[in-house]
Prior knowledge:
By secondary structure, the protein is mostly beta strands. Helices cover about 10% and strands about 50% of the residues. The protein has an eight-stranded antiparallel β-barrel. A hairpin with a 4-residue loop joins strand 2 and strand 3 (about 65-75). The longest helix has 15 residues, at about 1-15. The protein starts with a helix and ends in a 12-residue tail after the last strand.
Amino acid sequence: MKILYFTFFIFLFSELFSQSKDSSITFPMFSGSYSFQIPAGDLDERFGNSSSIGPSFMIKTKQNILLGVDFDFIFGNKINQPGVFDSILPSNGKFINKYGEFAKVLISERGFFLGGKIGKIIPIFKSNPNSGILITVRAGLLQHKIRIDNEDNNVPQILEDYKKGYDRLTNGFSVSEFIGYMYFSKSQFANFYAGFEFYQAWTENRRTIDFATMKHDEMQRKDYLYTIKVGLIIPIRKRSTNVYYLN
């Protein structure tokens, strides 16, 4: 794996500093993306399928190199790991609020990825040298936790700092690889990318004590995500009467 990463980065940087003779151009862009995510590894034991949305800023060079920063907000409704509140739930399995009534408590998945990326567009058609097969590698921080939602915030056992003892906040270094297609239209109104992405993250619990077990979780986790990703792009470039930027 390390050899593959090294070869990929050498290829990208050699392309970055080489001379381009086609009509590909340099311009910055913003994008927004949506991903459907399937967990694997240790992550599959805690959460079910999830989604992510987020913004990105990228710069495309004349050599069709992409450099950018991304933020993905992760959310899901399925928790696979049982027993989150076993240590504080009464025998009937329901929370009692401070008024002595049954309380509504919902749990879900929340997280994010924040990092930088580098990639390459490989044109397929000479008529559009700015579009083509897109390959990127990202590196950054992946974080996830169990979101605890208590309607009206009236259950003392899971308020404020007590809630942190049950959320299993976890994060660590992550890399991801994407392969797909990026398209810039001549009209500039249909600019998008779509493809598949694979995350690998080496994470650990960041809470001092897990209240469910009353001890620190020292597990070294390997969290994986298989995703289908689509994004809309807003390129930032000026028109010229003498230069055609696309096609």
